[in-house]
Every structure is written in C-alpha cells, then in structure tokens.
Specification:
317 residues, alpha/beta, Alpha-Beta Plaits, Rossmann fold, 2 domains, seven-stranded mixed beta sheet, four-stranded antiparallel beta sheet, 10 helices, 30% strand, globular
Length: 317
Amino acid sequence: MQWSEICIHTTNEAIEPISNILHETGASGLVIEDPLDLVKVHAEEFGEIYDLDPNEYPEEGVRIKAYLPINSFLGETVEQIKQAINNLLIYDIDLGRNDVSLSEVNEEEWATAWKKYYKPVKISQRITITPTWEDYSPVSTDQIIIELDPGMAFGTGTHPTTVLSIQALEEYLTDNNIVIDVGCGSGVLSIAAAKLGAKEVFAYDLDEIAVNSTKLNAKVNQLDKQITVKQNNLLNHVSMKADVIVSNILAEIIVRFIEDAWNNLIEGGYFITSGIIQKKKQLVKQKLEEQGFSIIAVNEMEDWVSIVARKNELAQF
C-alpha cells in the first residue's frame, strides 16, 4: 500500500493539539522531530541513550509527521487537517511556521524505519517506559515497566507533560487509591497509576481511537481487569468519588471541568493537571484556587507545567 506522509512544521507548544487532530482524522503512526531532543540534558537517573541524527531534525520549531493512506479522500482529509490546525489560533496557541507538506512513502519502509525513534526511557524513580518490541529487563526489584505500542499514534509516553504527570502520580498516589484519568490517550497514566498501587482506575476519553488504544495497552500490561475504559466527555455524568484525578490535556480544557473534579474527589484528594504551557500557568492556578483547591506543587519541564492541587477538607462551597 502507498501512504502519504503529511508533515507539519510548527512549534513545541502545538505538538499535543496537532497530534490529537491527526489521531482524530485516522492518521496511522506519528513521528515528532524536535531539535531539543538533540541537546536535552536529562537528570542523571532518568533518560535514554541512543544516537540521533541532527540532519533529520529542523533547525527551529518541530516537525510532526503522520501517515495517511493514498485514496480518493486524501485531498479532503488534508484540507480538514489544515483547517483544524488553523482553528487552534482561537485558543491562542502559537503555530509557528505552520507549513504543511505531503510526500509519498512505501508501507514497507515506514513500517520499520519509524521504530528507531523509540527506545526504553526511565522517566521517574521507579518507572521505565519501553516499546513492546524491545527486550528490556528490570535493573532493580522495585522498577516498574510500562509497555506501550507507539504504532497506535499516541507516542511512547515520554513527552514532558506525560513525564510530569507520572512523577506526580508516583509522589502522591498511595496503595488502594481510586484514580480517574481524564483524557486518557494511550492509557499510559492509567497504567502507571495501576502499577503504582491504585486499587481501580477509571479512564475516560472522548476520542474512540484513544479509548481503543488505552484498552489495548492495558491488556498488553495485563491490567485490563483493573482499568475500566469508557468513551466520555471529560467528567460529564461521572458520579464516583476518587482519591486522585489526573489529566494531561490543554489548559483551556482543564479549566472547564475544575468544578467537576472538585465534586468527584474525596476530601483531601489530589487533582494532578498537566499539558499546561507557561503562559497558561497562572490561569489554571487561579481557577483551581477559586474553586477551593490548595496548590501543593508546581513542576516544570522545558516549556511545560504540571500543577498538583489538593481538595481542602474544610472548604465549603
């Protein structure tokens, strides 16, 4: 089969929303070429070690590549993608150059070549994420391994927003907690929560592809009985109480369901938010505090922010 590679030259800020647009249009496979990966310095105990070719990266901005089957609907699909990306300007998202180009690629070449981008990565004190095809053995008895299949177009779980979320889960989640994952994507946060000791995890996403991806990855990690996955719009019509709610999505979406998160948390429960760009940090903090949350931690990685908030036991609203 012949595939068309669509390449969007944009900004780091736009990676998450543009990736979501590509998922929703049925793109098969996703590659992010970010020159920051060439110079990134990981903390000594975290990170990955393998060779990257500078010639495959842009000098500025980032390139997001996805793959679409060449058929009679290709032109219409590309126009839909372009329009959806341009609509992100409504949310004050910097699109940078916003150049979109197309090229043909053979399925056989793409099916194996993209795997060179993905290797095991230690992202917290205990958790290492590894692609399903990598043969990786734990280096200590308390190390936690999460297996993911990036072929489902949700990445390997090593984006700073995901790393910040998992590090917060590792710090604030305790055994037998009930956890809700809002906007579950690949399911990596749900899987991390379950492996860190959560009793039950409820994963929600409006995107059917994300729901299926989370179900498959939960099964790969033998956690499909512990993680309940449903298609749902944020926390609409969710009535259960959780010890921890985690959400790695856009700041503009987080502020829409802060009240629902408050209502779905037990007293003293934690709301872990990520996917927040620097210029939206104060907005999210303000909305959380207005609802009655106490800000417990603000963690940053590159240009991204994660905020951990706690539901005050004595607050009355």
